[in-house]
């Protein structure tokens, strides 16, 4: 059984002061922390490409797990919609070369945004088990600094750059349980890139998250024979403080179980859930954690991970 063995990350030290951005757009501290949820937004260096962020995260994973050797990697998946240059070749191939991984590695990208980590861990698990592979790297890196307009108050105060690397393999401390997924392409105009610039209809995205995510999680729990009391923590995509708080309120019995941690990172797209897992879950004594990612597509995915 392929599960999650370890997670590491790379968050650039440089970035934007969101209070300074807030002053520019006449937004006060209550709005910045209460609605947005982020005081600081990490930004990659102009010379860094998406693959460079991936390499930093994977090298941190190798440093944390000296028993994991480069030559033992069988599969590499990169979750990104903002790959190197113009997206061809696929970023995973560039990462394979920069990391010096063996050429027998299966390396490919998954083009998903904020739901990408949940999709990615199940894609990796299924791929590895079907092909009999032993060690996989699932990497997330979606630097929205490439596409966000710094004059767009709806987006420039939200997004931070980061990358994560998840080691997936056998004898893992966290196993993948039941999952549910969904797609509604009619919502594509609410989150899209046109002429290289990102557009987001914040109100529509908020409404979508509030309509879909709590119901999706409740359905997942019901189909798993579980109640919210059986879940030790909920790690949902850190879209904004307002979104996390609104979803948590739909779980009247357990709102405090929803982890919110984006003050120093912002919305890191596909990296937000693994950042939570790395910091709050991997070494916690918890037995069962619920995940939910949602956003561009429109796309969503929810899952339960557990200690066997």
Give the secondary structure arrangement, pairings included.
Layout: E1 3-10, E2 15-17, H1 18-24, H2 29-36, E3 40-42, H3 50-64, E4 75-79, H4 91-99, E5 106-110, H5 116-131, E6 135-141, E7 163-169, E8 175-183, E9 191-194, E10 197-200, H6 202-223, E11 233-236, H7 241-249, H8 272-281, E12 288-295, E13 299-306
Parallel strand pairs: 4-5, 4-6, 11-12
Antiparallel strand pairs: 1-7, 2-3, 6-7, 8-13, 9-10, 12-13
3D architecture notes:
This protein is of the alpha/beta class. It contains eight helices and 13 strands. The strands form four sheets. A five-stranded mixed β-sheet has the order 1-7-6-4-5, with helices on both faces. It has a four-stranded mixed β-sheet with strand order 8-13-12-11, sandwiched between helices. A hairpin with a 3-residue loop joins strand 12 (288-295) and strand 13 (299-306). It is globular, with a radius of gyration of 18 Å. 47% of the residues are buried. The mean pLDDT is 96.
Briefly summarize what is shown.
This protein has 308 residues and is an alpha/beta fold.
Features:
alpha/beta; 8 helices; 308 residues; 4-stranded mixed sheet
DSSP helix fraction? 25-40%
Class based on secondary structure composition and strand pairing: alpha/beta
Low-confidence stretches: none
C-alpha termini separation? 11 Å
Q: Overall mean pLDDT score?
A: 96
Total strand segments:
13
Biggest beta sheet summary: 5 strands, mixed
How many helix segments?
A: 8
SSE succession: EEHHEHEHEHEEEEEHEHHEE
Inertia-based shape: globular
**Amount of beta strand:** 15-25%
Strand order of the largest sheet: 1-7-6-4-5
Rg over CA atoms, rounded to whole Å, is 18 Å
């Amino acid at each position: 059984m392929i599960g999650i063995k370890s997670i590491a990350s790379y968050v650039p030290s440089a970035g934007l002061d969101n209070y300074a951005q807030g002053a520019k757009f006449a937004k006060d501290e209550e709005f910045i922390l209460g609605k947005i949820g982020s005081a600081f937004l990490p930004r990659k260096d102009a010379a860094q490409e998406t693959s460079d962020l991936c390499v930093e995260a994977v090298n941190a994973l190798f440093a944390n797990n000296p028993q994991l050797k480069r030559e033992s990697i069988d599969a590499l998946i990169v979750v990104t919609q903002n790959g190197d240059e113009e997206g061809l070749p696929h970023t995973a191939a560039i990462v394979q070369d920069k990391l010096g991984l063996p050429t027998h590695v299966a390396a490919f990208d998954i083009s998903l945004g904020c739901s990408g980590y949940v999709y990615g861990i199940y894609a990796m698990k299924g791929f590895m088990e079907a092909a009999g592979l032993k060690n996989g790297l699932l990497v997330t890196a979606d630097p929205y600094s490439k596409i966000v307009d710094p004059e767009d108050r709806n987006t420039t105060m939200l997004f931070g750059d980061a990358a994560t690397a998840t080691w997936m393999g056998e004898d893992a401390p966290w196993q993948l349980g039941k999952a549910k997924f969904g797609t509604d392409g009619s919502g594509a105009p609410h989150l899209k890139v046109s002429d290289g610039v990102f557009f987001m209809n914040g109100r529509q995205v908020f409404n979508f998250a509030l309509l879909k995510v709590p119901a999706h999680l409740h359905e997942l729990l019901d189909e798993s024979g579980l109640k919210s009391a059986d879940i030790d923590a909920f790690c949902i995509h850190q879209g904004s403080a307002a979104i996390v708080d609104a979803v948590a309120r739909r779980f009247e019995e357990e709102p405090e179980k929803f982890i919110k941690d984006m003050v120093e990172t912002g919305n890191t797209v596909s990296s937000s859930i693994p950042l939570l897992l790395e910091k709050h879950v991997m070494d916690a004594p918890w037995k069962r954690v619920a995940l939910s990612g949602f956003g561009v597509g429109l796309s969503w995915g929810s899952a339960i991970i557990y200690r066997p």
